[in-house]
Write a structure and sequence with these properties.
By secondary structure, the protein is mostly beta strands. It contains two helices and twelve strands. A hairpin with a 5-residue loop joins β5 and β6.
């Protein structure tokens, strides 16, 4: 009987040694998750003075433009705390109405009304540090670099302008449509949290600040993702 029991224990031990670890089990020397993918949506806000690409002289307008954004992020865990991420995002159109100065051939000037439309796309790489070891809820901080492409379209409808200093004189201005693109490399700082609703699925929220010559862009997003 003892011999049979000893043989049975040896067989069970051998099978247990060959069996793969169950889902969620911590493997020595490896992070809890190898990586994750997140799909998010949110808002993109940009300082007009920093992102406009058309120089059309003195203008009056709202200082910031706001657009909706859709974002896909993929991350790779080096440790349970350190992660490298790549990110791609696209925005909807954002519109700002304003007015600008037009200088006429005779040297006189007047104000015209127009609408600026902005759209942006971005690709970035960042390093994140998460607090906690993939706890159910844990915050994180990060930093990195984004390549941001902004398209600016200026639409001036046909209108009459009133010449400065001569209230009785109005001159027709033809409709014009101008567009330009610019690409900039911007460093960023970010922070957020990750909250799991099951073993692999989670909700994630991000706040990203892009700062170069002062605060240039602010991105906030929230989304869902999965570990793998």
């Amino acid at each position: 009987m003892r011999a049979r029991l000893l043989v049975a224990l040896v067989v069970v031990a051998a099978l247990g040694a060959e069996a793969p670890p169950v889902l969620g089990q911590v493997v020595a020397g490896q992070p809890v998750a190898l990586g994750d993918v997140t799909l998010s949506a949110g808002t993109f806000s940009g300082d007009i003075d920093k992102i406009r690409t058309l120089d059309v002289g003195p203008r009056q307008f709202e200082p910031w433009v706001h657009m909706a954004i859709v974002d896909v992020t993929a991350g790779y865990y080096w440790t349970d705390h350190l992660k490298t991420e790549i990110e791609a995002a696209w925005t909807t159109d954002g519109e700002i109405s304003g007015s600008g100065v037009v200088v006429l051939p005779n040297g006189q000037s007047g104000w015209v009304y127009d609408t600026s439309r902005y759209t942006a796309s971005q690709f970035g790489v960042g390093q994140l540090w998460q607090f906690g070891r993939n706890a159910t809820f844990h915050p994180w901080i990060g930093a990195g670099v984004d390549v941001v492409r902004v398209e600016h379209e200026l639409d001036r409808p046909a209108q009459f302008i009133y010449v400065s200093g001569q209230p009785a004189l109005s001159i027709p201005v033809a409709q014009s449509l101008l567009s330009a693109r610019t690409t900039r490399v911007l460093p960023f700082a970010s922070a957020g949290f990750k909250a799991y609703f099951n073993e692999r699925g989670f909700v994630r929220s991000d706040l990203k600040l892009r700062v170069r010559d002062g605060m240039e862009q602010v991105v906030w997003k929230i989304g869902v993702g999965v570990d793998f």
